[in-house]
Amino acid sequence: MGIKRIGKHLLEHRWRVRRDFPPRVLGAIERAIKAGEATHAGQIRFVVEGALDGAPLFRDQPARERALDVFSHLRIWDTVHNNGVLIYLLLADRDVEIVADRGIDAKVGRAGWQAICRAMEADFTARRFEQGVIKGVEAVSRELAKHFPPVAGGPNELPDSPVVI
């Protein structure tokens, strides 16, 4: 466990999430998710976590492992067609992880998700948080639309609103 990472997470306060993701930006992300889900039968959730604290921090939990925990906690795996996708941002590390349920993951694969993550991280490095997330949601939606076309009257199985931890 690196002292530099611990220090970064301990100093990364909730104010940074509020600064980079104010209500206006969270609303734009929610609208992008709704618009994307109109083009496919999949489900997208976006979660931003300012910094790790407590046990996850002192265990030196990687962002990928934390994203898997969040995916499970939010029950994103609990969709009819196994096509839920989590876009997770650990802001302190500027690390984006995409966790996809088996129905869509088998079709896109790790390399496809990683390409979307790297593009988002490039926007975040340039402090374009809103643009980066919306572009990521659009890219995930394109993948879902290829493999899970929209179903007339299909249910919205998961909330579209972003989650801030």
From TrEMBL:
<protein>
    <recommendedName>
        <fullName>TPM domain-containing protein</fullName>
    </recommendedName>
</protein>
<dbReference type="InterPro" id="IPR007621">
    <property type="entry name" value="TPM_dom"/>
</dbReference>
<feature type="domain" description="TPM">
    <location>
        <begin position="28"/>
        <end position="142"/>
    </location>
</feature>
<dbReference type="Pfam" id="PF04536">
    <property type="entry name" value="TPM_phosphatase"/>
</dbReference>
